[in-house]
Every structure is written in C-alpha cells, then in structure tokens.
Amino acid sequence: MVRAVRASLTAALLLAALTSVVGATPDAKAFSREGLPVEYLDVYSPSMNRNIRVEFQGAAAAGPATSGSGSKAVYLLDGLRAQDDYSGWDINTPAFEWFYGTGVSVVMPVGGQSSFYSDWYSPSSFNKQPYTYKWATFLTSELPQWLAANKQISPTGNGVVGLSMSGGAALILAAYHPDQFVYAASLSGFLNPSSPPVQQAIRVAMLDADGYNVDNMWGAPWDPAWKHNDPVLQAATLAHNGTRLWIYCAPGGQTDLESMAMATNKDFQAAYTAAGGANATFEFPQSGTHSWANWGAQLAALKPDLIATIRR
C-alpha cells in the first residue's frame, strides 16, 4: 500500500510539473538570425504514409566537408509538445547559427508530439489519430536514405541530441543503430520509462498532450516494448558499442520535472558504469530546472565534443 501511494504521488507530481513546463513560454533566444541557409524539406515517409517536415542546414552551409560518404549531421529531437510548424530547437535556441560553418549539418525533424520518436503499435485511439507513428523507422531508415540521396548527408557516423521526451529516444536510437549514431546526448531525459511510476506519469502526460493513448504506443505496462525502449535497461548495449554519450540533468526543485528525471539519470549512470562504460560525460549541476534555457546552454557546451567525435 505504501509503495502504491508513493508511486501515485510521484506520478501526480510529475504530471503537475510537466504540464506547467511544456506550456511555458520560450525562455531562450528564439530562432537563429535571418540569412542563414535553412531549408524546409517535406520528406515522404512510406511507413507513416505522409510527408514529414524537416528543418535542415546542409553540407553547403556547414563548412569544410568531412571525409567519407558525405557530410556528417546532428539530429535534434523535440519535446513532448512538439509543434507541426517548427522544431522547438529552432523556436527556442539559435542552434542553426551555432552549427553554421562547423562542418556539421543540422537535421531538425518537425512534429511527433507525444511520440517518444518510436514505432507505435497502432494509431492513438483516444484522439482518432489517422496514422500510426513510425518515427524510429523514419529516423533510422527513410530519412537517412533521403538525405543521402538528395543532400549528401552520410547515413553513418552522425550524432543525435534529445531533450525531455526525446532524451531517452536519442539513447535508444543510438543503442540499436550504433553505426548511424556514434554520438548521443540526453538532456533532462526520463531514462527508465519501464519503471511503474514513470509509466504512470507518461500515460497521464500523453493524455494531457492532446489525448494520446500510451497503450497504442508500447502496449500494456508489462509489454516488452517498454523495456525495449528503456535506456537504463539498454545501458550495457551503449557501453559495449562504445557510443560517445553526453548525459545532462539538473536537480530542479521538489515539484519540478527535473527532479523527477534526475533519479532515472542516476540509475542510467549506475547501469552504464556497471557495464564497463567509459565513454560518457555526465553533467549533473548543483542547480537547474526543466527549461529550454538550460537545454540550449547544454547544446552549446556539448557542441565541441560532438563535432570532434563525428568529424573524425
């Protein structure tokens, strides 16, 4: 009984913090300066039977080309309430400007609200979603093939950065596709989604974010898909792959979403270290909240490490 009450309280606090954060106004500089060669691509996804908007700053704008089959790129993934017009990374940070001239292309998929950038079992039933999310297929197969054919982006040796909802997704994509993503960063991610309190919080949060039904995503709480998409349980794979990692989370406050995420980040650190992992930077500062200002600062901080890794 005590454990059940504690789990319910944790989920309630997590939801309260989440709904307050995801609805907040941007707290970092919005959009990169005008004049940057940012393109707005519509890439058809056969698995989702629809076009996916992708904001893109490509090889011609990136600076000196890398060796090998095309420019290397960083994929920047959005949060729970991803919009359908622009990526949150573009709305809230000057990410395109930061990478301009570095030799690294920038790929910002647009949309994917509540998707966790994974392949779902079926369309969300509660909000009558007209198609099934197949984001993992899009990001690891359809989009890389399109970018290689049309924008000379290498399908291997790239980086992926996620925040909040997509922090764990970035690690999972790298765990199962180590050739494509040799660098993965999680910023304030929830890295143990198969644990009961986090499962419950995700369920309620997705309902709040436009009525998405988690059962259509990874099934019932005991379904293997939850563990398949759990970075703590895949930490050994990342350790053995040698993927370069950057893991950030701040302590937040008693009712702040960040404090809820911190426990899962510590669990991931322990699992990764126990598996012999030795290629990760763990940034756990003394203060900080679940906010775009901190995620933007972390992207700027990790940028030299990411560039050095994928431009080898």
Question: What is the H/E string?
Answer: HEEHEHHEHEHEHHHHEHEH
What is the CATH T-level topology?
A: Rossmann fold
In which range does the helix fraction lie? Answer: 40-55%
Strand content: 15-25%
Question: What is the CA–CA distance across the termini?
Answer: 54 Å
| Strand order across the largest sheet | 1-2-4-3-5-6-7-8
The radius of gyration computed from the alpha-carbon positions, rounded to a whole number of angstroms, is 18 Å
Give the structural class.
alpha/beta
Poorly predicted runs: 1-13, 16-29
CATH domain class name: Alpha Beta
Oligomer: single chain
Integer tally of domains: 1
CATH superfamily: Alpha/Beta hydrolase fold, catalytic domain
Largest sheet descriptor = 8 strands, mixed
- Chain-averaged pLDDT: 89
Number of helices: 12
What this model shows, in words?
- About 40% of the residues lie in helices and about 15% in strands.
- By secondary structure, the chain is an alpha/beta fold.
- It has a single domain (about 40-60, about 70-310), classed as Alpha/Beta hydrolase fold, catalytic domain (Rossmann fold).
- Helix 1 (about 1-20) runs parallel beside helix 7, helix 6 (about 165-175) packs across helix 10 and helix 10 crosses helix 11.
- The chain is globular and about 45 Å long.
Features:
single chain; 312 residues; alpha/beta; Rossmann fold; 8-stranded mixed sheet; 12 helices; 15% strand; globular; Esterase-like; Diacylglycerol acyltransferase/mycolyltransferase Ag85A; AB_hydrolase_fold; signal
